[in-house]
């Protein structure tokens, strides 16, 4: 049964520890169907979805992502602890950029759509909220983004022509309880 939408919004967390259980094709179709109801500029609905479930493909793409991200973080390692910690993770043999999630969905957006990044981000949020409503965890894998700018990698994974990768999302059933990070009070200015 679907949870109350406000509860879903307030309790969704990024999940980085997953059980091995596969996500059913029916549930994947449900998530994509929810994504397509996101708003989009001029109602262009500029998205396309690439579903990757094959373990070898996930492993290979993870390695490509790690290799592309390491040189970006190297200059930051002494100035930023989070960057330094993530760099150690990326360099550790056997780690997965996808945290061993059984499913990666990459949302691609039409390069000609004027609001494509925003549109695809809203579609991604719809997918993540829909997943949470079904007990499926998710996480946006920003660390894959540099690899998804490499034309060779895009060709290997069958990315659609004329589209760019906007939102690489992993999905899976959470292993244990996900930590709840502190939520800061937003800075708000009222123009009256």
Structural write-up:
The protein is an alpha+beta fold. The protein has a domain at 5-54 and 96-172: NADH Oxidase, CATH 3.40.109.10. It is 38% helix and 15% strand. The chain is built from 6 helices and 4 strands, in the order H-H-E-H-H-E-H-E-H-E. The chain has a 4-stranded antiparallel sheet with strand order 1-2-4-3. Helix 1 packs across helix 5, helix 2 (25-35) crosses helix 5 and helix 3 crosses helix 4.
Low-confidence stretches: none
**What does the main sheet amount to?**
4 strands, antiparallel
* Quaternary organization: single chain
Record the strand order, biggest sheet. Answer: 1-2-4-3
What gross morphology would you assign? Answer: globular
Number of DSSP-assigned strands: 4
CATH architecture annotation name of the domain at 5-54 and 96-172? 3-Layer(aba) Sandwich
How far from one another are the termini?
A: 42 Å
* Structural class determined from secondary elements: alpha+beta
- Strand percentage lies at 5-15%
H/E series = HHEHHEHEHE
CATH topology of the domain at 5-54 and 96-172: NADH Oxidase
């Amino acid at each position: 049964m679907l949870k109350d939408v406000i509860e879903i919004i307030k309790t969704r967390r990024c999940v980085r520890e997953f059980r091995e259980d596969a996500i059913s094709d029916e549930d994947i179709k449900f998530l994509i169907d929810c994504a397509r109801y996101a708003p989009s500029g001029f109602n262009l609905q500029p998205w396309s979805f690439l579903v990757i479930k094959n373990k070898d493909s996930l492993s290979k793409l993870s390695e490509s992502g790690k290799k592309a991200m390491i040189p970006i973080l190297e200059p930051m390692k002494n100035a930023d602890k989070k960057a330094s910690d993530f760099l150690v993770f990326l360099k550790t043999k056997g780690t997965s950029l996808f945290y061993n999630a059984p499913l990666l969905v990459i949302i691609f957006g039409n390069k000609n759509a004027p609001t494509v990044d925003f549109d695809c981000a809203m579609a991604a949020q719809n997918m993540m909220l829909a997943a949470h409503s079904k007990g499926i965890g998710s996480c946006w894998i920003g660390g894959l983004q540099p690899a998804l700018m490499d034309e060779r990698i895009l060709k290997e994974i069958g990315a659609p022509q004329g589209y760019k990768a906007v939102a690489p999302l992993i999905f899976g059933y959470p292993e244990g309880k996900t930590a709840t990070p502190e939520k800061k009070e937003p800075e708000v200015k009222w123009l009256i």
